[in-house]
Amino acid sequence: MNRRQWLQSSAAALLLKAAPAAPASIETKIVRLNLRHTWTTTMSSSGYRDTLHVRYTKEGVTGIGEGAPIPRYNEDARSAQAAVNSVRGLLASADPWQFTKVMAEVFRRIEGQYAAKAAIDIALMDWVGQKLGVPLYRYFGLDPRDAPITTFSIGIDTPAVTRQKVREAEPFPVLKIKVGLDTDEATIEAVRSVTNKPLRVDANEGWKDREEAVRKINWLEKQGVEFVEQPMPAAMAEDIRWVRRRVHIPIIADEACRHPADIPKLADTYDGVNIKLDKAGGILEAWRMIQIAKALGLKTMLGCMISSSVSVTAAAHLSPLVDYADLDGNLLIANDPYSGVRVERGKLILPDRPGLGLTSA
Ligand code: MG
């Protein structure tokens, strides 16, 4: 190297040092999603839901994330937004290619607020997928043809409205029926007066008495029901084991299953687990949970909250891994800002575009 070359390379090195990577920009927005039908479960009844959207922009590419705060876990859209804002500096300066380390730090700094964590994780993974030019299912080594069918959910309502909703759900080959109040038999009878499709039933912790739970599940077994989700409160594990010994269809944990460390404790109580990005804190945590559940011989299901196509599409990219999908939260709303995953006769059709593969609706 002559003197001139040395000076040039030193100047280049100085220039590199003098120009650190531009910080990422992080935008948060609370998005009000209007429901097509008033949505009633054992938990609540409402006409809209607020979710938190996060936009992560760096090097000209924007990753989009969403988290649906879960009131049962003391989350709401404002607390989720405050949680993302509390790590704004970290996210602005962090290297998104080190997303594993970034998310570990996000989990260390934010207590609770899993919807906020999910929104950050999804935005980062969307960014990474777009930068690599691959859809997220391909990043995870999955075959989109393995994506399962999704159920379409029918919230609790009067028999007349239930019949109307079931008719509207005609394209879906399997339905998920919300029960858990004292109208359960009337609800199932209303559904059965319209369709013979296989049903899955979600009691959302609604049955408090184990003998009542056995009686209801034994009746549901004769109504073409494939499995029951969270029949009794998550805290009543001993009663749920008692019920499980007396019924003949699988019992799936939902409210009892939030995080990877919960799953080993559930293996002798339930037949499977319902994993949601909003409960877990994102795609990476959900992937871990699916692997743990499979290793323990549990059935796996991916579910969702009421949310837009951002969160539902993120979950759908992992869906080739699971036995069951209930990824219809975006179909229950009237003002989805994006489109992503599609459903054809119940089958999830994953977008073949980089990252989440979202487009504006
Ligand atoms: Mg559920």
Annotate the secondary structure layout.
Layout: H1 3-18, E1 25-40, E2 45-58, E3 61-67, H2 77-86, H3 88-93, H4 99-109, H5 114-132, H6 136-139, E4 152-154, H7 159-168, E5 175-178, H8 184-192, E6 199-202, H9 210-221, E7 225-229, H10 237-244, E8 251-253, H11 263-266, E9 272-275, H12 277-280, H13 283-295, E10 299-302, H14 309-318, E11 324-325, E12 338-339, E13 342-344, E14 347-349, E15 359-360
Parallel strand pairs: 4-5, 5-6, 6-7, 7-8, 8-9, 9-10, 10-11
Antiparallel strand pairs: 1-2, 2-3, 12-15, 13-14
Helix pairs in contact: 2-5, 4-5, 7-8, 9-10
The structure holds magnesium ion.
Residues 202, 204, 229-230, 254, 274 line the site of magnesium ion.
Helix content: 25-40%
Report the sheet-strand fraction. 15-25%
Q: Average the pLDDT over all residues and give the rounded result.
A: 94
Evaluate the radius of gyration: 22 Å
- Helix/strand-derived class? alpha/beta
What would CATH call the homologous superfamily of the largest domain? Enolase-like C-terminal domain
Instruction: List the ligand species.
Output: magnesium ion
Number of helices: 14
Across the major sheet, the strand order is: 4-5-6-7-8-9-10-11
Q: What is the CATH C-level name of the largest domain? A: Alpha Beta
Supply database-style keywords:
2 domains; 361 residues; 8-stranded parallel sheet; 21% strand; Enolase-like, domain 1; 3-stranded antiparallel sheet; alpha/beta; binds magnesium ion; TIM Barrel; 38% helix
Describe the structure in brief:
38% of the residues lie in helices and 21% in strands.
